[in-house]
């Protein structure tokens, strides 16, 4: 009997590691699933480019200034965020005004369509949408600039800015930390969103404009002047888009580290 008990214990000792290994083998699957989930989220954030889906460079400074314990440092961080935001709004307003000027001048661009035909409705629609988006970018930038200046002029201006940025203006009951308001983050991103969308509308309109000249020919040829313009523009545009996205990937990777 003692001999049988020893054999049973030995058998249990031999089987236990196998169970341990099998349980550990199941975990990587969950980790892989989690990694794939996070990779999808990262992809969505990358496609947002920190514009449509604000990245940590937008969220983290606000969260830090809301939860810094030292009052002097908290005020310094708030003042730094305000100054940087004002500089950003000023830049966005200037660029939006330039873009709006370019878009409004598209009506006087040389007509590349044969026989003086009017541009297709899709071209005009893209450019008109770009104009209204650029104008709203200017309007939002001006509005937010004025509001920041007025908030800062108050005696408790820095506290008012933090209360505006915080979710519900109060700290979380459980963690004791103040979280940035998602609505506020998206609101302060609106000028950049409008500007980016207006730029996309102009690029799409230019694609439609150059290629529309190749579809209105009575006797189309494979390699006429209109096709040369369209192909050359497309090659340069695609190259620029690829280089742009390479830069975005490098910036996105640096922020995520």
UniProtKB/TrEMBL annotation:
Keyword Transmembrane tagged: yes
Region (Disordered): 1-34
Comp. bias intervals (Basic and acidic residues): 1-16
UniProt keyword terms in alphabetical order: Membrane, Transmembrane, Transmembrane helix
Keyword check for Membrane: yes
Domain of life: Eukaryota
Residue intervals passing through the bilayer: 89-109, 121-142, 192-211, 231-252
Protein's recorded name: Uncharacterized protein
């Amino acid at each position: 009997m003692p001999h049988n008990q020893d054999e049973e214990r030995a058998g249990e000792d031999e089987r236990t590691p196998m169970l341990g290994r099998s349980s550990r083998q199941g975990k990587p699957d969950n980790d892989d699933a989690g990694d794939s989930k996070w990779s999808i989220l990262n992809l969505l954030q990358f496609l947002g480019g920190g514009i449509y889906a604000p990245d940590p460079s937008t969220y983290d400074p606000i969260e830090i200034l809301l939860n810094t314990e030292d009052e002097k440092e908290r005020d310094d961080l708030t003042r730094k965020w305000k100054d940087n935001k004002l500089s950003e709004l000023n830049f966005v307003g200037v660029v939006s005004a330039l873009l709006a000027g370019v878009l409004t001048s598209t009506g006087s661009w040389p007509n590349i369509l044969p026989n003086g035909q009017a541009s297709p409705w899709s071209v005009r629609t893209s450019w008109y949408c770009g104009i209204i988006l650029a104008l709203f970018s200017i309007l939002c930038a001006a509005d937010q600039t004025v509001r920041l200046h007025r908030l800062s002029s108050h005696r408790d201006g820095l506290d008012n800015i933090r209360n505006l940025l915080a979710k519900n203006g109060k700290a979380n009951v459980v963690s004791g930390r103040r979280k940035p308001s998602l609505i506020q983050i998206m609101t302060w991103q609106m000028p950049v969103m409008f500007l980016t969308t207006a730029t996309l509308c102009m690029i799409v309109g230019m694609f439609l404009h150059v290629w529309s000249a190749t579809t209105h020919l009575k006797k189309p040829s494979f390699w006429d002047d209109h096709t040369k313009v369209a192909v050359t523009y497309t090659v340069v545009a695609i190259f620029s888009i690829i280089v742009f996205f390479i830069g975005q990937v490098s910036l996105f990777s640096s922020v995520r580290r």
